[in-house]
């Protein structure tokens, strides 16, 4: 991976604040991002699958047709 000096300095600072090495910090960050993406994908799928139920239960909040 390549970073600018400014980017690398920010990463080093963030890693130090977490008490981690840069390698561990970047690893954990990439894993968390992947987990976030999976969560968002599932949340969107849930919303799409249950939107009609929400609209029926809360018609005043349903989008205008």
What does this molecule look like?
This protein is mainly α and 65 residues long. It has one domain. It is built from 2 helices and no strands. It has helices at residues 5-18, 22-57. Helix 1 crosses helix 2. The mean pLDDT is 96.
Treating each run of at least 4 consecutive H or I residues as one helix, how many helices?
Answer: 2
Q: How many strand elements?
A: 0
Q: How far from one another are the termini?
A: 48 Å
What are the secondary-structure elements, in order, as H or E? HH
Radius of gyration: 20 Å
The main β sheet shows up as: none
Q: Name the beta content range.
A: under 5%
Integer count of domains: 1
Shape: elongated
Average pLDDT, rounded to a whole number, is 96
Please state the structural category: mainly alpha
């Amino acid at each position: 991976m390549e970073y600018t000096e400014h980017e690398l300095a920010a990463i080093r600072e963030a890693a130090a604040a977490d008490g981690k090495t840069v390698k561990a910090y970047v690893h954990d960050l990439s894993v968390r991002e992947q987990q976030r993406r999976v969560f968002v994908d599932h949340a969107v799928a849930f919303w799409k699958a249950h939107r009609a139920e929400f609209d029926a239960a809360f018609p005043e909040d349903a989008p205008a047709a």
